[in-house]
Specification:
Layout: H1 3-6, H2 10-27, H3 39-46, H4 50-62, E1 66-68, E2 75-77, H5 79-109, E3 112-118, E4 123-129, H6 150-158, H7 162-170, H8 176-190, E5 193-196, E6 201-210, E7 213-223, H9 234-249
Helix pairs in contact: 3-4, 5-9, 6-8
Protein name: Transcriptional regulator, IclR family
Domain HTH iclR-type: 17-91
GO molecular function, one term: DNA-binding transcription factor activity
Length: 260
């Protein structure tokens, strides 16, 4: 609980929880057979009085959760819900499509590959394809990657909300903040990122774009001897080619600045 929430009386906090719960109940009434709702129908189905439902409708319309249907008193899901739904569908689609590309890439370069999706404050490992090799470097699914990781810097370079990216990098201590921002700018030009950590683990990462912008990153992960750091290596070029093909299938566009 935040300090601001702790200052609220218990009754006020209960009201906040109830408001969220009722908004969720209203949104839960929408379905393919019920694309629009009226105050009367919502009142009947939830057992609430019409004044309460009308008040919730007004508040949810103001926040973008609902919108009014033209020339009627009906409401339907608003832009915020549609955006969230589109985002969710995009994540499901990349998770369905990527495994085949990752298997192909892993077989080609003999290096483990990792796909990450953007979480609340950084990349989260969502798919892993381990290489069939005596030496395997892998990452656990569900791992939260640090902001100075190769995949995080690729996300930060291409996130549509660059103000958010700036705030995140601003939380890093110096000189890490300056170095991370410098690397991010270089990634925008190259389209990829490479790092070798103090343990000799090499990572090369590239973005995958959908119609609304970057939707995932894919990285090759191996030892420094197995995976050259250079972005013009065969492994890096193979990774880039796969990410560009996947981007095309996702309906995205590879940034012009990174084209050769």
């Amino acid at each position: 609980m935040t300090e601001r929430e702790a200052d609220k009386p218990a009754a006020a906090r209960e009201q906040d929880i109830q408001a969220v719960s009722r908004a969720a109940q209203i949104l839960g009434l929408f379905a393919p057979e019920t694309p629009e709702l009226s105050v009367a129908e919502t009142s009947r189905r939830l057992g609430l009085n019409r004044t309460t439902v009308h008040r919730y409708f007004s508040s949810m319309i103001s926040s973008g959760l609902l919108e009014r249907v033209e020339d009627s008193a009906l409401v339907r899901p608003g832009r915020a819900i549609l955006q969230l739904g589109s985002f969710s569908l995009g994540r499901q689609r990349i998770l369905q499509m990527a495994p085949a590309y990752m298997r192909e890439l892993t077989l080609d370069i003999k290096i483990s590959t990792v796909l990450s999706l953007w979480g609340t404050s950084g990349p989260v490992v969502s798919l892993v394809e381990d290489a069939d090799h005596p030496t395997v470097v892998t990452v656990r699914v569900g791992s939260q990657l640090a902001l100075n990781s190769a995949q995080a810097k690729v996300f930060l370079a291409f996130l549509p909300d660059q103000f958010h990216a700036e705030r995140l990098t601003g939380s890093l201590p110096e000189p890490q903040r300056t170095e991370t921002r410098r690397r991010i700018e270089a990634i925008r030009q190259a389209g990829m990122s490479s790092d070798v950590n103090h343990r000799g683990i090499s990572v090369i990462a590239a973005p995958v774009f959908a119609a609304r912008g970057i939707c995932a990153t894919i990285a090759a992960v191996g030892t420094e001897r197995m995976l050259p750091e250079a972005l013009d290596s065969r492994e890096a070029m193979a990774l880039k080619a796969v990410c560009k093909r996947l981007t095309k299938e996702m309906g995205g566009t590879w940034p012009e600045a990174t084209e050769e």
